[in-house]
Each structure stands twice: as structure tokens, then as C-alpha cells.
Write a structure and sequence with these properties.
The chain is α+β, with helices and mostly antiparallel strands. It contains one helix and four strands; from the N terminus they run H-E-E-E-E.
């Protein structure tokens, strides 16, 4: 009489299921690594652009008469910065935007990459009135 043997090997179906699970796991890991790389590159570019924007703002806060950034101060070939000065009109009633030779202006600095705005910041500051 034959006795039930205990089997020690895997069936083909069990092996195929294990390989499919392993393959899906590896694909998920590769997708996560790819997404993390893209996010890392985007964050690095944003940080670099923010640094450039802050450099331009700091320069124009110190030198309000200058219209352009000197190339030795802003050495980024595919980036440029532009400054727009506007009068501040939305002050509370009875408050003047100018006093003596000084006036309150809104300075908007745009960082442009290949001619298109990629970052912008606005700062209200005091500026000498030019005659």
C-alpha cells in the first residue's frame, strides 16, 4: 500500500505566482525611484532659481538707479531678471506715499528663463525721487 508522500517541491503555478509578485514589486520600486529623481531635479532647479531671484532683489534694493544687472553679478546665460517700479496707491486714507525726496514704491522683480517668467517677487521699498 502506498503511503501519502510528503512533497517538498513547489508546483509550477506557485513559482509563476512568486515571480509575478516579485516582478510587480521591482516595477513599483523602479517607478518610485524615477519619480523621486524627477522631484529632486525640480526641487534643485527651483532652489537655484530662487537664489538667482534673491540675488537680483538684493542688488536692486541696494542700487535702485541701476536698470540692468551687471553680467559679473548675474552670470547665468539662460536667465535674465527685470525690475518694474510702480507707485503704491493702496495706502490708508491720510497716508502719503512720498515724504521729502523719498517715495514708497512697489518693486516687482521677474526672473526670466529664455524670455519667459519663471519666478517673481514683489517688495515695497523706499526710493529716492528722481528729478
Amino acid at each position: 500500500m502506498r503511503c501519502c508522500r510528503k512533497r517538498n517541491n513547489f508546483t509550477l503555478l506557485e513559482v509563476l505566482i512568486a515571480v509575478a509578485i516579485l516582478g510587480m514589486t521591482i516595477m513599483a520600486i523602479i517607478a518610485m525611484v524615477g519619480t523621486a529623481k524627477i522631484r529632486s531635479l525640480t526641487a534643485a532647479r527651483d532652489l537655484r532659481e530662487n537664489h538667482m531671484l534673491v540675488q537680483a532683489v538684493e542688488y536692486w534694493l541696494l542700487d535702485v538707479e541701476s536698470k540692468e544687472l551687471p553680467p559679473e553679478f548675474f552670470p547665468y546665460p539662460e536667465y535674465t531678471a527685470e525690475r518694474i517700479l510702480e507707485n503704491v496707491d493702496d495706502l490708508p486714507k491720510g497716508i502719503s506715499a512720498s515724504r521729502g525726496n523719498w517715495r514708497l514704491v512697489k518693486m516687482t522683480v521677474n526672473l526670466l528663463r529664455n524670455g519667459e517668467i519663471c519666478q517673481t517677487i514683489s517688495v515695497e521699498r523706499l526710493a529716492r525721487q528722481l528729478d
